[in-house]
Fold each of these.
Amino acid sequence: MGTDKSAAASPDSYRSGPDQHGHFGIFGGRFVAETLMPLILELEAAYNDANHDSSFQADFDYYAAHYIGRPSPLYLAHSLTNQFGGAKIYFKRDELNHTGAHKINNTLGQILLARRMGKTRIIAETGAGQHGVAAATVCALFDLPCVIYMGKTDIERQSPNVFRMKLLGAEVIPVESGTGTLKDAMNEALRDWVANVEDTFYIIGTVAGPHPYPAMVRDFQSVIGREVREQILKAEGRLPDMLVACIGGGSNAMGLFHPFLDEDLRIIGVEAGGLGLDTDKHAASLTGGVPGVLHGNRTYLLQDEDGQIIDAHSISAGLDYPGIGPEHSWLHESNRVEYVSVTDAEALDAFQLCCQGEGIIPALEPSHALAHVAKIAPDMAPEDIIVMNMCGRGDKDVFTVAAALGVAL
Amino acid sequence: MDLSVAGRGGLVTFITAGDPDPDSSFELLRRLPAAGADLIELGMPFSDPMADGPAIQSASQRALSAGASMVRTLDMVARFRADDKKTPIILMGYYNPIHRYGPARFVNDAMQVGVDGVIIVDLPPEEDEELCHPALTAGLHWIRLVTPTTGDARLPLVLKNTSGFVYYVSIAGITGTRSAAASTVDKAIKRLRRHTDLPLAVGFGINTPEQVAEITGIADAAVVGSALVTEIAANLDTKGKAMPRLADNACALVSRLAEGTR
C-alpha cells in the first residue's frame, strides 16, 4: 500500500500510475453519474488518508496474517516442472488463503476502509462467487450487513458459492437483466449504490471501476507480489525470469505483477479465449476487444460496431467479464506486459494435469495461466524460473468440470 | 433554452430511440410536440444503462433487439427535423456508443441533423475534455445532471460548462423508482437558483399530471421518462410487437401530463 505509492516518483517507472485523475495513459478515469461522483471523491480522500496512517496498514497486516493465513506459500511444482521439461515452475499458493482465492486480500482492505469511513452497509458484485464469498466473509467478521449481486446465469453454474454466501449471512440478489453475468451484476450494484449513497460502501472485486478502485484494489492485492519477491529471493537468491497470471478483470495478475513492473523480467497475462478468438464466444478483452468506457473507466472492452457491450464467454465464470482493469490496458499498449489467451479446452487439460501431477485442484481461472505455462515452459532453460499465480482453488468448479468432461455426478 | 412557454412550465418527455421498433418509435416522436411535449429527450440505446431502472433498461433492450444504432438514432432526428424545426431535441445516454462512433464525428453529425443538446450520464465535469468541450464549441448545449449528492462546494464545477438548462435529479437513485416530496424538491431548487440563472428542469419519479403540476410550480419544467416508456411497454403484444394504438395511447398520456403544466 504505502510502499507502492512511494516507489512511484520516477517518470520512467511503470509503477507510477495512475495520475491524480485516475488515468493510466488514456485508460482509467472516472466515468460515473453525478450522483456517485461525490462518493468516489470521498472514497479517494479516505483511501489516501488511510495510506498515510500506519495503523491502517497494521490492521491489514494483522488480519492478513491471522485471518487469511498470509503469507501464502511459494511452492516449487516439482512434478509439472519435470513433466514440462524446461523452466522451474513455482506456484504462488493464494488458493490456500481463507475462502480459497486471492479475492479476500482485497475485501479485507476495503472493509477496513469502509469501517474507517463509518459505512454501515456493504454491497458487492460477483461472477464466479469467489469475490462474493470473500465479501460476505469479511462482512460476517466485522458484523456488517452484506448484499451481493450475482447474475442469474452465474447463480445456476456456481450454486455452492451461492449457498456459502448465504451461510455467511449475506443476501444474494439474482440479476436477470442483460445475460445475467458479471457485467450485469456490476450494473445492478452500481444502481444500488446510487440509491443508497449515505450508508453504503461498494466493495468492487477487481482492478476496474472508477478511480480510485483500480489503484486501490491493486494496492491491496500487491501483497501477493511483495511476498513473492521475498520468497523467491530466499528460495533462489534471485528474481524470477517470468511471471504468469490469468486475467478476467485482472486483480490477481495486477497484484502479482505490480511490484515487479520495473524489474527486468517477462510478464504474461492470460485471458480467457473461450471457444477461440475466431469465434464470438470468448472473454479476451485485450486480444479481442477495443477501447471503450464501461463501469466508470476507459479500458479495452468486448463491444460491437455500435458500442454495445458484447457478452463474454468462458468456462470459468471468474474470467467471464467483457472488460479488463485499465492498468492492464495501459501495460498492454506500453508493451510492458504480454497478453495471450487460452481456450476453455486448453484450460480443462491444464486443470486435470494439475490435479494429477501436483495433487492440487486448481480453479478454472488459474488453469488458464497453467495452460500457458505448459505451452512455454518446455522451450525455456532448466535454470529459468517462472512464478505462476495459483489464485484460487477448484472445489467450486468440480460440477462445471464434470459437465465439461461428460461425467454425471 | 426556453423551457417555460408563455408563462407556464414546460413538459420534457423522454423516449428511447427505436423502442419498440424504428417505425413505431418515429411515429411517436413525430407526434409528441402536438400531444404536449415542449422538449424531447431522445434516449440513445445502450446495452448497460447503469443509471436506469427496469423500465428504461427494457426500452433500451427492445430498441437494440429491433436494430437500433447511433446511425439510426441520428437519422430519426433528421427525419423529425424535416417537419419540425422548432421543438428542441436533446440526445440522452451513455458515453460508450459515442466513444465508439467517434466523439468528433458524433458532434458533427448531431449538429448536422438538428440536435440541440446532449446529456451524457457518465461524463462528469472531471472528464469534460472528452465530449463536453467539443460539443460546446460546435454549438450543442451541454446539459448536466445535478443530484441531491452534489454539494454546494461542488455545484460551481458542475454548473461551469452547463448550458441550455440544468436537469435536477430529484432523488438519489435510478430512473423510474422513487419520487421525491415536493417540499424537498422546492428546497433543492431554491438552492440551485442561488447558483445559476439557467432554466431548471426536474426529473426522476414524475409520473402523473398532479406531479407535473407540482413540479412546474417549483421549477421551469418537469421531465417524464419511465412513465411514458412504461406506457409503450403496455402497448406491446405478447410477442413484444407494437399494437396499433401505441402512439395514440402514448400521446394521450403525454396530453394528460401536459394538462399538469397549465
Amino acid sequence: MAFTPVKDKYRSKVGEVTLGATREQGGTRAYTITVGGEATLPFLHFEGEIPNRPVVALEVWDVAPADWNPCFEPFYGDVYNNPAAWAKKCVEEFGADLVVLRLRGADPDVKDASPEDCAKVVKDVLAAVGCPLVVLGCGKAEKDNQIMPAVAEAAAGENLLLGVAEQENYKSLTAACMVHKHNIIAQSPIDINICKQLNILITEMNLPPNRIVIDPTIAALGYGLEYGYSIMERARNGALGGDSMLAMPMIGNVGYEVWRVKEANASAAEYPGWGEQEARGILWEATTAMALLQAGMDIVVMRHPKAAGLIKQNIDELMVKTSYEG
Amino acid sequence: MFIIGERINGMFKDIAQAIREQDPRAVQEWARRQEAAGARYLDINTGPAAKDPVKVMRWLVEVTQEASDLPLALDSTNYDAIEAGLEVCKRPAMINSVPAEWPKMERVFGMAQKYNSAVIGLAMNEQGIPKDADTRVALAMELVACADSYGIPMEDLYIDPLVLPCNVGQDHGPEVMVTLRQIKLLADPPPRTVVGLSNISQGTKNRELINRIFAAMAVANGLDAAIADACDDHLVEAIATARIIMNLDIYCDSYVDVYRKQQK
C-alpha cells in the first residue's frame, strides 16, 4: 500500500523581503537576495513551497575587534583594520552570501566614530563587494540614532538591511528606512509579544511588512538556545496561521552569540576533556546555526569561515526536495 | 472566530428602501463600513418583503461587489435566489443556509459543488429545532455525511447549532455550547461552526451586553464564525480578547487592532 504523508494546510505564508538593488534598480549591487516566502515549516518540501534558501552572512566590523578569539587571526588578521578588504575576503574567499557590517567603532566607549566616518565605511564596503549589505549600529541607542540616518542617506538606493529597531527605539531608524528606501531589522528580546507589537508599530509608520526582518534574539547552544528556538517556532506557526504581523523572515546573530561563550573560547589546556578549542568553537557555532535553521531562520549571521562553510553545506542538503510521491 | 457582517439585510429599513428604489448607496455604505470594522464575509439577505428575490439577490450581490472585495454569504430560503447570486459572485461565496432535510441538501450541496462555495448547515429538520445537544449533533452528522458525499471539504461546511433568544429558550444555551464542542468530533478535519449571534438577545433589553458575553463564551467552546454586527466595537473587542485568552492569536499590546485588520 502506498504511503500517504500527512500534510498540514496553512492559511498563509511568510512574506518575502528582497535585499540589495542592482544598477537597473537604482543601486550598485551585483545581485539581490530574496529571503522568506516559506509556505510550510522549515524544509518540509513535500508539504509546501520553500522558494528561497536560507542565506549565510559573515560579520565584518569597522574596527579591529579587540576581544575576538585568536583563532580568527589567520582568517581575518590581515584585514582587521580594513573593513572593505575584510568584506571582500568574506565574499570571495569564504563564500558568504552577504555581509553584515557592525559599526562597533561608533560606540562612544570604543572609537566614537562620527556619522560621516560610519557612512564612509559603509560606502567603502559597498564599493568593495557586490553582495547586498546589512548594517548594524553600535548597540547604543542614542549614538545609533545619529549614525544610522547618515548611513541610510549615504547608501540611498542600495536597499540595505539596517538594524536594529527596538520597541523603545524604532522611530528614527524606521523613518530613515522610509525616506531612503531600506529594509529594517526589528529586534525583540526573546519575546513573541514584543516581536509582534514592534512589527505593528513599524508598519503603523507606513513601512510595509515586506521590508521588515525579525531578529527574535537568539542565544548560543547551552545558553538558552531553546528559548529563541521556541519563540521562532511560535512566530513561524503564527505566520503560517495567518498572523501577518509575524509573517516576516528572521535573522540571527549566531557568530556573535556563540563566540561569547566559554565552550567556544576556552583553551584545551584549561579544559583538557573538551578537546581542541578551534574545532570545538566551529562546531559550537555550526550546531547552534543548524538548530536555528530548523526553527525557520532565514539569514544566519556567522563568524568563523569554517562554521559558515559547514552551514552552507547543511543548507544545500536541507534544500534538496523531499518527496514521498512516486 | 470571524464575523460575517449581518447588516445588508432587507429587514433593515435603509436596505429595504435601497432595494425598493434600486439605489445602491446604503448597501455600498454598509459594505464599506462592515469591511473597515473587520468583517470577513458580508451576509446578503433580500429580506422577507422582496417581491422578486431572485432579481433582488442578483442586484444586491452586484452592487455590494462594487464597494467591497469581501466574499459574500448569500442568505435566503429561496434557493433560486441563492443560485442567481452565486452566478454573479466574483469570489467563492457562502450559502446561508440549508437544514438537514432532503431534498434541500441535494440542491444546496450540489450548488456548493458547482460554484465552489462554503455552506452553512442548520442543525434542524422538518421537526424544528432540537431541544438537546444530542439531537443537534445527530443532525450535524447528517449534514457532514451529505456534504462529504458531494466532495465539499469540511473546512467549507459551517454547522449552525441554532441559537434561541435567552429570554425564550434559556435552556438551549448550555445545549448550544455542548453542541459546538461535539461538532468538532464528527470528522477529521472537523467541520466549522457558525451561529447567528444576535438571536441570543432578541427581545431583551441588554442586547449588546448579551451578544458579546455569548460571543466570548462561544469562542471558548470553539466557535469559528458568527453572523453578527461587525460595527459593534465592544463585540469585536470581546471576540479579540476571547481569542487571546484561548491562545488562538498571539498576544501583543495592539491585539484588538490586529484582530480587526486580519479579518481581511
